[in-house]
Amino acid sequence: MAELLVLRHGQASFGADNYDVLSDLGRAQARAAGAWLRQMEWTPDRVITGTLNRQIDTASEMGFAPAPETHAGLNEYDFANLLEARFKDAAPELATGDRRQHFRVLRETVFAWQRGEIENPAETWDAFTARVEAARAFATDTDAKRVLIVSSGGVIGQMTAASLHAPAAHMMNLNLQIKNAAMTRFVFSGSLFSLNEFNATPHYATPQGAALMSYS
């Protein structure tokens, strides 16, 4: 059996003009994850990220030798576009640091997207799930025994929900739980693909490491 370890990127720049930049905390989270994996003698044979800066830079901070490949199927869904498509000119202001409002609107918007209630989004729900599956297939079509992916919460939530044959709404319930630089592990062999571990953060399991914990 081979392993697919999917890591959510480190903390990005919540509330900033450009979210797609790792914070100093995000860089420290990525380094902690890489250090813990090396301590466990878990070294990837293959590294894959999406094309977003926060994903690529997380992989870089982890410091593993294989040159990362990229696959756009691992990119996060475009929440800003979904907001614009859902609310038109009446989109709520979310760049204020109010995290509770942000995540409530995020959850409701994704559920509406899944139900096909948002007109003309840049990407449909079906297109999103198809590209996530294409990325999963790309990552597991390999002779490598240890594959590391760096992606985002929505992609990880969808990959996990699909592996469990769970209803679409479950993707978002999983998405909102995933901590920055958390590890979700699958095992695979041929057509077999099974969840082994979800949202694990053993690299935060010390008093010093606990200070690195974040969700956004």
Tell me what you see in this structure.
By secondary structure, the protein is α/β, with parallel strands linked by helices. It has one domain: Rossmann fold. Helix content is 42%, strand content 16%. The chain is built from eight helices and six strands, in the order βαβαβαααβααββα. Helix 2 links the parallel strand 2 and strand 3 (69-70). The two termini are 33 Å apart. The mean pLDDT is 94.
Question: What's the arrangement of secondary structure elements?
Answer:
Blueprint: E1 2-8, H1 24-39, E2 46-49, H2 53-62, E3 69-70, H3 79-87, H4 99-114, H5 125-140, E4 146-151, H6 153-163, H7 168-175, E5 183-189, E6 192-200, H8 207-210
Parallel strand pairs: 1-4, 2-3, 2-4
Antiparallel strand pairs: 1-5, 5-6
Helix pairs in contact: 1-2, 3-4, 4-7, 6-7
What's this model, at a glance?
This protein is of the alpha/beta class and 216 residues long. It contains 8 helices and 6 strands; from the N terminus they run βαβαβαααβααββα.
Based on the model shown, name its key terms.
single chain; 216 residues; alpha/beta; Rossmann fold; 6-stranded mixed sheet; 6 strands; globular
